[in-house]
Amino acid sequence: MRLLPAPDAHAADLLEADGYLFGTPENLAAIASLMKDFFDRTYYPALDRISGRPYATLICAGSDGHNAARQVERIATGWRLKAMADPLIVCTHAQTPEAIIAPKAVGPDDLNRCEELGAALATGMSMGVF
Length: 130
What we know:
The chain contains five helices and five strands; from the N terminus they run αββαβαββαα. It is α/β, with parallel strands linked by helices. Strand 3, helix 3 and strand 4 form a beta-alpha-beta unit.
């Protein structure tokens, strides 16, 4: 397993991996610009070369997260990846300008849910379920 920030990840990394856990904040009802850049740089080089691989999505949002989840889902559909779970959306409830720009801390229950999703993906891949 490798953890790569979006700016450091390339198409070769996608080709080497057996599955993916995409994580991004939702900013202004969209995936973060660094994640968008990652998908822009890797989409065509990986197209038709990673079909059928499993993926899951983690979104951190101030109030909703579903638009970002839909963006990732559309990209994954184009790559013909298989979703192994519904997107996990962690909501920070940041609604004021001060709360939106403040550093966020993900609580232990949400961190647990994220860890469980990653573990489920890893376990399913190691068992050949996905």
